[in-house]
Amino acid sequence: MSLDYILVKKPRCFLVYYLYWVPYTLVYEATNRFLLFPPIELEFTWLDAHLPFVSFLVPVYVSYLLFGCLILANSKDNRELNDLFYLTHFQLLVCALFFVFFPVSFPRHEYYAGSAFTKAFLDFWLWFDAPNNCFPSLHTANCALAIHYSLGKKRQWLFCIWGGLIIVSTVLCKQHYIVDLAAGLCVYLLSIRFKEWVLDPWKSAAGAVA
Predict the structure, then answer these.
(1) pTM of the predicted model, to two decimals?
(2) Most buried residue, 26, 29, 32, 56, by most Cβ within 10 Å?
(3) DSSP summary character for residue 177
(4) Closest CA to 178 of 83, 73, 90, 46
């Protein structure tokens, strides 16, 4: 008898999606606040040094908090919702290994002191998200996965463009290095392999229904 694949189900209330991901959020917060090693700052590549700071993309970057749950709500059935549940947690596990053993920070203060708006954002984001988890970019991994699951759906262009802008904003809002973005895309590709090698056989064995 295979373990049941369906762990979470599509709720009637949108806010329940946030509740489903509370353990994810707690692990994420813990791994970038309670460090085993001091965080390091990476050398800027030529591209890091020459990309501008685009402050008007800051709201796009923050919209990740809404975007993720809208992707969940847009899942076509319980199987797809559980795909997203397991895959985002797999991505978190991979990234958390780096957050714990190779914490990377970014010199954000150099870019955000210019205006009251950007400074207020930085103060909020430092409270919400300690800056020791740059590599790999979990924003990028999650958004690439969201785009993958948006293809072929009714609002695919909305979610693909939105997700793409969030990925771009990780470097243009000076939250990440270019290498963080590239590593985040690698985590996304690894999660797709994980789905093919682990989740799909599990679903077949468990006879998961929508």
Answers:
(1) 0.92
(2) 32
(3) -
(4) 46
